[in-house]
TrEMBL record:
Matching PANTHER family: INNER MEMBRANE PROTEIN YJCH (PTHR38598:SF1)
Domain of life: Bacteria
UniProt source species: Aquipseudomonas campi
Pfam families named in the record: DUF485
Entry protein name: DUF485 domain-containing protein
GO cellular component: a single term: plasma membrane
Keyword set includes Transmembrane: yes
Leader sequence segment: none
Taxonomy of the source species: Bacteria, Pseudomonadati, Pseudomonadota, Gammaproteobacteria, Pseudomonadales
Keywords recorded for this protein, A-Z: Membrane, Transmembrane, Transmembrane helix
Sequence intervals crossing the membrane: 25-46, 61-83
Keyword Protein biosynthesis tagged: no
């Protein structure tokens, strides 16, 4: 692509919409993940006995294990949500922009 195509892409309102949507969505997902991590760290710092409590009296598993695994799984889920939207809505917008500027 030459410079004039790049300039047309940058000036395209759909491109600006795509960039704004993608950036806002990424920040929201990042804030959710950061909130979960901070909550987990604060829980470790201020309520460590809760994480060390057994799930049931005869179980060797403490509450810290499912909470930690849940934190890891939440990262995968948020990544999957981003990928699904990126491969759907964002790719459709991207293709629309490319079709429009190549006319």
């Amino acid at each position: 692509m030459n410079d004039s195509i790049y300039k047309r892409i940058e000036q395209n309102p759909q491109f600006q919409e795509l960039v704004a949507k993608r950036e806002r969505f990424a920040w929201i997902l990042s804030a959710i993940m950061l909130g979960l991590y901070v909550a987990f760290i604060l829980l470790i710092a201020f309520e460590p006995q809760l994480l060390g409590t057994r799930i049931s009296a005869d179980s060797p598993i403490t509450w810290g294990i499912p909470m930690g695994v849940g934190l890891i799984i939440s990262a995968f889920v948020l990544t999957g949500i981003y990928v699904q939207r990126a491969n759907g809505e964002f790719d459709t917008l991207n293709q629309s922009i490319l079709d429009e500027v190549q006319k």
